[in-house]
Design goal:
Shape: globular
Helix content: 25-40%
Largest sheet: 7 strands, mixed
Oligomer: single chain
Strand order of the largest sheet: 5-4-3-6-7-8-9
Number of strands: 9
Radius of gyration: 16 Å
Length: 218
Amino acid sequence: MFDRFGSDGSEDDYETARERMVRTVTDRVDDDRVLEALRAVPRHAFVPPDRRGEAYRDRPLPIGDGQTISAPHMVAIMADRLELEPGEEVLEIGTGCGYHAAVTAELVGAEGVYSVEYGEELAENARERLAETGYGNVSVRVGDGREGWAEHAPYDAAYFTCATPSFPDPVVDQVRPGGRLLAPIGTGFQTLVLAEKREDGSLERSEHGGVRFVRMRS
């Protein structure tokens, strides 16, 4: 049976697999809304057709151009750490296939998600997938993630789906005082770092374990 995404699995099969995936990450998050977001987003729609049988395994998958879609547990952990609320404005650095942006859209509303992708083809494919799956109001542009997206600043939160040596100053500047930033920090060993921006512009940081992400491109 062919579903509307062109694979040989049925929607019922995908829903069953998605629910199983959600159960595997339940113990890693505190916010039930994050689990509901994972339930809502059809991850199989964001991976290449030949990978859709693996879409709901808790592992990263290649999406082309040397990039990956993050493992579901990592997407869940990042969303949970950011404590996103409806109506917030969020900057994502590294659109990739668009899956993480869709999960964020479930939490804050698609019109509040702004995503920057370095690769033009990835960005275009992500726009198409987001539109097809009901998240067409997510804004995606091609550009250098280090520069953020000043046009829509200030943001309540910003996160990186790729490793960066540090939080780039332009992105920090675009987050409002009291806002949050989250990124895999490091060039070799990487640490997931959460930072809250103080009124004076400095960052109060906390570390949340070792991670492994594709490096930000330049």
